[in-house]
Amino acid sequence: MPKRGMLIVLSGPSGVGKGTVRKAMFDQGGTDFQYSISMTTRQPRDGEQNGQDYFFVSKEEFEHKIATGGMLEYAKYVDNYYGTPLEYVQDTLASGKDVFLEIEVNGAMQVREKMPDGVFIFLTPPDLMALKQRLIGRGTESMAIINERIAQAENEIKMMRNYDYAVVNDQINLAVERIREIIRAERLRVPRVYPDYAQMLESKQVENVNSEN
Ligand SMILES: Nc1nc2c(ncn2[C@@H]2O[C@H](COP(=O)(O)OP(=O)(O)O)[C@@H](O)[C@H]2O)c(=O)[nH]1
Ligand SMILES: Nc1ncnc2c1ncn2[C@@H]1O[C@H](COP(=O)(O)OP(=O)(O)O)[C@@H](O)[C@H]1O
């Protein structure tokens, strides 16, 4: 039986650049992991193709899929459903290949519940930590606007705690490279599912642990 693939989840606040970074990474190539195409009820935009950018379906089809347990996760975002079909993820992981999801934060937390051994990457806007100090120190914005920004930043920072890694999206290519580094490192990790590493050493199974898929 092949070693089970790894699930990689890229998420982060709305507008941080998840879609842009994911597209850049797959366009560049060298991505030896499979992108899970999401299902959505939103209308295709110009140039988008069914089965390539998304599976575009009706609200009824989407709700049927939820009701029959066909979704790993789903969320409503600006009046439309977005979700990850379960079967593709399951089959691909079982075949030993790694799977990459790019989803919004509510969906990512559902995946964390169901597949806690996934690798959860949070994409952040640059200078998130400095935002609060800067806004207060500068004192040019109205208090209402400062409060709004701080509340938003605080919520974003709180969300970050639920992830394994934070990647700053300052420049698209740098963000892509950081994500690649995380994936490379995670592939060398001692698997958490093996209870007795010492015994594996004795029985010479360790060399299989980091073997390629
Ligand atoms: N939960 C969840 N979110 C998704 C999925 N696919 C895409 N999204 C997110 O849905 C949001 C809207 O995506 P989209 O309509 O393509 O617009 P854009 O990325 O804002 O240009 C983005 O934050 C995506 O990351 C999915 O399968 N599940
Ligand atoms: N590193 C970056 N530098 C500048 N602009 C960016 C960067 N990453 C993304 N963007 C821009 O930010 C906007 C939101 O990106 P998008 O990928 O749609 O975000 P998300 O999928 O997280 O909602 C887009 O206009 C995109 O071109």
Question: Would you kindly provide a written description of the structure presented here, covering whatever features stand out?
Answer:
- This protein is α/β, with parallel strands linked by helices and 213 residues long.
- It has a domain at 7-36 and 97-206: P-loop containing nucleotide triphosphate hydrolases (Rossmann fold), CATH 3.40.50.
- The protein contains 9 helices and 9 strands.
- The chain has helices at residues 18-28, 59-67, 86-94, 105-114, 128-138, 143-160, 172-187, 197-202, 206-209; strands spanning 7-11, 34-35, 39-40, 55-56, 71-77, 80-85, 99-102, 119-124, 165-168.
- The strands form 2 sheets. A 5-stranded parallel β-sheet has the order 2-7-1-8-9, with helices on both faces.
- Helix 1 crosses helix 7 and helix 5 (128-138) runs antiparallel to helix 6.
- The longest helix has 18 residues, at 143-160.
- The termini are close together.
- The model has no long low-confidence stretch (mean pLDDT 87).
- Guanosine-5'-diphosphate (GDP) is lined by residues 14, 18-19, 38, 42, 73, 75, 77, 82-84, 102-104, 107.
